[in-house]
Amino acid sequence: MEHQFYKTAGISLITGSLLIIATMVMHPHGGNLEYLIKISNTIITTHALAILSIPIITFGFYGLTLKLLDPIKIAILAFIILLFSFVAVMFAALINGLTLPYFLNEYADNIEQYKAAIDSIVHYGFAINKPLDYIFMTGCCLAILIYSLIIVRSNTFPKWIGYFGILLIAFALFGVLTGFIFTNLTGFRVFTFSLAAWIGVATFIRTDI
């Protein structure tokens, strides 16, 4: 039964990673208000997919956490940090992926009349979204770093998976220090693809987590 649980958790991690990749591939570029209204269905679909991936990948990380438990149970800290980051990205997806298209469609026929006010509200939504993205990315980096350090110290996984995770975090830190913008679409894609790569490597190497 325990083996079956870990196998299911591994499948959840892989499935969640694939959903994340699909979300970022389908994610449209931004534009003016008229363009955002035109692609509102695409915006809703991609962000709904992202929200769907959150509980699936969370279950997978729950299995990973149990697999990596040591006497001091520091893996639980990584899991709690990860939960905070997932809550942040869920709110980001709700605001800009579901609420924004609904709001804009309500004014689709009067967009010019209320353009100034709508622009201010949209920019305010983007301003809320940015710190939520930072919380998500920082939380993921901290959690992956903790998981990776545990892997390096234990014999549960091949140690190179832990070193790979540490290397990814080092590259993320280097990107921050050199001014790489992770909160635009390109930067967010780089980050999420890197996250999916680490998850994919870990689960494909150990399909039972």
Structure explained in plain terms:
It is elongated, with a radius of gyration of 19 Å. The longest helix is centred in the middle third of the chain and has 39 residues, at 115-153. 82% of the residues lie in helices and 0% in strands. With 209 residues, the protein is mainly α. Helix 3 packs antiparallel against helix 4 and helix 5 runs antiparallel to helix 6 (159-177). The mean pLDDT is 85.
Question: How would you summarize what this structure contains?
Answer:
The chain has 209 residues and is mostly helical.
Question: Any descriptors?
Answer:
209 residues; mainly alpha; 82% helix; elongated
Number of H/I helices: 7
**Quaternary arrangement of the chains shown?**
single chain
Count of individual beta strands:
0
SSE-based structural type: mainly alpha
Mean pLDDT: 85
Largest sheet: none
Q: Beta fraction of the residues?
A: under 5%
Order of helices and strands: HHHHHHH
In angstroms, what is the radius of gyration? 19 Å
- End-to-end CA span: 14 Å
Low-pLDDT segments: none
Percent range of helical residues: over 70%
Give the overall form.
elongated
